[in-house]
Design goal:
The chain is α+β, with helices and mostly antiparallel strands and 202 residues long. It has one domain: Beta-Lactamase. 41% of the residues lie in helices and 21% in strands. It has seven helices and six strands. A six-stranded mixed beta sheet has the order 2-1-5-4-3-6, with helices on both faces. A hairpin with a 2-residue loop joins β3 and β4. α2 runs antiparallel to α3. The longest helix has 19 residues. The two termini are 14 Å apart. The relative contact order is 0.20.
Length: 202
């Protein structure tokens, strides 16, 4: 059971573009040469998916052996994304996302609206959330009550392609993306040839 990242993405109300504002990773289980490609893929998923998600919703996307869990704020188009392996408990993933989103709002407030570009706003407490939730047995008792209280609907998506399909054809999105390097785009093309999609690396 492993959390790979918690990332906060926002859709700026002025220009309607999506920017990554805060990001923390634990990629110790990812090969050295794949770390940047994994980070680019996470950013790509956030940038392309957030505009299509309704405020106050939760989403779980399974892709092969991994999950992307998403919690969108009730008031703004601010999305907390958690990337993890398939064994990580969904309930705890959403508890971690709620905690991370609350921390982001408390520390950053509406200041994120001032940045019409990607930032890495330091919110060390979110890094602590990853560390604290990395071992589900340590937080499970604390979050057990949330299981009974939290009935928010979770929208399940079969894979990343279906999550992003409202934005257009995945091949086109990959081709025009500024988040994916030439290497990541080449990786997408090569894996597609063997019946895999671009995001199998995350």
């Amino acid at each position: 059971m492993k959390i790979l990242a918690i990332i906060i993405g926002v859709q700026n109300p002025a220009d309607k573009n999506v920017y990554v504002q805060t990001r923390y990773y634990d990629l110790s289980s990812v090969g050295y040469f794949y770390k940047n490609t994994v980070k680019e893929t996470f950013k790509f998923v956030i940038r392309e998916s957030l505009p299509t998600l309704d405020k106050g919703t939760r989403h779980s996307v399974q892709h092969e052996d991994y999950y992307c869990h998403i919690l969108v704020s009730l008031n703004d188009q601010v999305g907390a994304y958690l990337f993890c392996d398939q064994d990580y408990p969904r309930r705890l993933a959403y508890a971690a996302l709620q905690e991370a989103l609350d921390i982001f709002k408390k520390n950053v407030g509406d200041n994120w609206k001032k940045f019409p570009k990607d930032e890495n706003i330091p919110v060390p407490a979110i890094d602590e959330v990853i560390k604290n939730y990395q071992d589900p047995s340590k937080v499970d008792k604390l979050s057990q009550a949330q299981k009974n209280v939290d009935e928010t609907k979770i929208i399940l998506h079969d894979n990343i392609k279906k999550l992003l399909e409202r934005q257009g054809d995945l091949d086109t999105l990959v081709a025009k993306s500024n988040d994916l390097s030439k290497g990541a785009k080449a990786f997408y093309k090569n894996t597609k040839k063997v019946n895999k999609s671009c995001c199998n690396i995350f």
